[in-house]
Amino acid sequence: QVQVVESGGALVQPGGSLRLSCVASGSIGSIHSVAWYRQAAGKARELVADITRGGGTAVATSVAGRFAISRDKNGNTVYLQMNSLKLEDTAVYYCNARYITDIMYETWGQGTQVTVSS
Predict the structure, then answer these.
(1) In what order do the strands lie in the sheet with 18-26?
(2) pLDDT (tens digit, 9 = 90+) per residue, 78-104?
């Protein structure tokens, strides 16, 4: 099994930057991909960015050019670098890991709050 824990959420002013971390534990070698999602109050959860086992990355068009996803050399920590934050980036950010044993599973973290406010 794989577990993920997010951290790094905070209150930040518009235009500011923040880096979120997602630390994975357990069967790290079975991870297929890791993604960041976010859910604003009253809205559906949406995909923000993901990174595959092979290192391929993708970000949502709403954050392209401002957010970037990366991981450390060991592959057990995935980061979401958020720059030029806007009020509409306020949300709970969740880490999601998909891993394969016999079939594909996914696991979610508990979420970390990002609030963009002046």
Answers:
(1) 2-7, 18-26, 77-82, 67-71
(2) 999 999 999 999 999 999 999 998 899
Per-position b or e across 61-96, b if 16+ CB within 10 A of its CB: eebeeebbbebeeeebebbbebeebeeebbbbbbbb
CA distance 26 to 15: 36
Burial 29-53 (b: 16+ CB within 10 A, else e): ebbebbbbbbeeeeeeeeebbbbeb
Query: Are 39 and 94 a contacting pair, CB within 8 Å?
Result: yes
What is residue 86's predicted lDDT score, i.e. its pLDDT? 97
H-type helices in 15-118, by residue range? none
Give the pLDDT score at 118: 93
Provide the mean pLDDT of the chain. Answer: 96
- Nearest-CA neighbor of 27 among 52, 53, 54, 2? 2
pLDDT surpasses 90 at 35 = yes
